[in-house]
Amino acid sequence: MTRRLPLRHSKASRAALGALTLATAATTLSGCMYLSPDQTTKSYIASDGTTAKVGDVQLQNVLIVTSDKGQPGTLSGLAVNNAESQVKLTIATPGAAKREITIPGSTAVRLDGKPNGADPATVSPAVSISSVASQPGLAQQVVFSTPNAGATQVQVPILLNQPPYGSADPSHPTFTPPETTGAEEPPA
User: Dihedral through CA 17, CA 21, CA 27, CA 28, nearest 10?
Assistant: First the structure.
C-alpha cells in the first residue's frame, strides 16, 4: 500500500494561487458585459402614447385623454408628414365621426388642436371622441388612413384626464370611495 504525503505549499505558491484565483474571478465576472446587449441599441417607445406609420405620415405619442369609459375624449399626439406635398390624414374611432386633417408637406401637426410651434399652418382642429370605448389604462382601436397608404389600425392607450396631457379641471370626476357597511374592522 502506498502512503500519500500531505502537500505543503510555500507562502509564495499560496500567494500565486490566490492571485490566479482572483484574476480568474475578475475576468469571469467582468465578462458579463460582453454577453449583455447595450440597452441603447434596443428600440422602444419612450412615452405614454404609441407610434405608427401610415404611408408618409409618422404618428408619434398618440393617446386618448378622457375622464372615464363612455365619457368624451380627445386624441393627443403628433402627426409628422415626411413627404414634400400635403397629405390628408383620416382618423376613425368608435363613438366619433371620421375626422380629416390636412398636414402640409414636411410639417408636424398636433392632434389635440394646439399649435406646434409658431407656425399657424401647424394648427389643426382637435380630434374629439364623443364616447371613449374603454376605461383609462386600457387601449382603444383607432384607424388612421391616407389616400396613398390605405388604412392602419392602431391600438391607442387611454389616459386619465390629468396633467401632462389632460386638464384636471374642477369638472374632472374624482374618486368616490365605496359606501361602508357599518361593520368595523377588529382592532389589531
Answer: 150
pLDDT tens digits for range 45-89:
777 899 999 999 999 999 999 999 999 999 999 999 999 999 999
45-77 b/e with 16+ CB inside 10 Å = b? eeeebbebebbbbebbbbbbbbbeeeebbbbbb
DSSP for 104-126 reads: -TTEEEETTS--SSS-GGG----
Q: What CA–CA distance (Å, rounded) separates 104 from 43?
A: 28
Q: Check whether 93 has a pLDDT greater than 80.
A: yes
- Give residue 113's identity as a one-letter amino acid code: G
Mean pLDDT score, 154-162: 93
Q: What is the pTM of this model?
A: 0.66
Domains and CATH numbers, the chain: 50-160 (2.60.40.1890)
Q: Across-strand partners of 81?
A: 57, 107
